[in-house]
Amino acid sequence: MIKKKALLLLSGGFDSPVAGYLMKTQGLEIIALHFSLEPFTDNSAEIKSKKIAKHLGIKKFITITNGQQQAELTKKCDHRFYYILQRRLYLRIAEIIAKKNPENIFGKQGKEGTEEKEGCAYLITGDNIGQVGSQTLKNMEVITRAVNLPILRPVLCNDKNETIDFAKKIGTYELSVGPEMCSVLGPKHPATTSTLEKVENEERKVDINQLIEGSLKTMKIESL
To answer: What residues have CB less than 8 Å from 67, skipping those under 6 apart?
Structure first.
């Protein structure tokens, strides 16, 4: 029986490793995708995420280094909406990788002239409702509308302590300990409510396709 594949957005924090583990136990083959904020951070989050992926038995680890592209969102868009815009950008990039073979992402052709596919059926995130100001139901609705692939959020309603306890149980807690890097460019007071219209208006202030393409050009694929 061929396992369905899913692409896990792996940050290196506590939530996304637990989300990946839970979906792996449901029979999905997991591929890990990490977004690095370099040059605004070092590569410690990438190293941490790679160790977590290996611990979880994930065989393919992909890194996108797009700090510069994320910085464009802070410069040209209303900073309050940064986390929403950031996550919509992440998901768009993830969806492209999930549907295509990352090694042929820029149009190389596979056998018989057809583009090879990665063939992921789902995206997986460690989103947890209300954990941070931007992770509200309304904002998640707007974020989800960026893509067509189903998004699995297995720790969405977890209490934080519940997730941490589970991380200790599966051995990812110690690997995840350390400062979170995803908030380096974030606002002090993120928007807790948004509408698709408002967010799409903000996205018109930048060239989203250019940000996606620039991000994909940094892609690094490793076998673990």
So the answer is: 36, 37, 38, 39, 40, 41, 185
Q: Which CATH number is 90's domain given? A: 3.40.50.620
First to last CA, the chain: 23
**Cα distance between residue 49 and residue 21, in whole Å:** 13
Q: Which domain holds residue 70?
A: 5-223
Strands 60-65 and 29-36: parallel
Would the pTM count as exceeding 0.85?
Answer: yes
Total structural domains within the chain:
1
- The pLDDT profile of the chain, 224 residues, written as one tens digit per residue, is 678 999 999 998 999 999 999 999 999 999 999 999 999 999 999 999 999 999 999 999 999 999 999 999 999 999 999 999 999 999 999 999 998 766 666 654 434 333 445 789 999 999 998 766 678 999 999 999 999 999 999 999 999 899 999 999 999 999 998 766 667 788 988 998 899 999 999 999 999 999 999 999 999 999 99
Q: Are 126 and 106 in contact (CB under 8 A)?
A: no
The two three-digit tokens of residue 22, written as one number: 């839970």
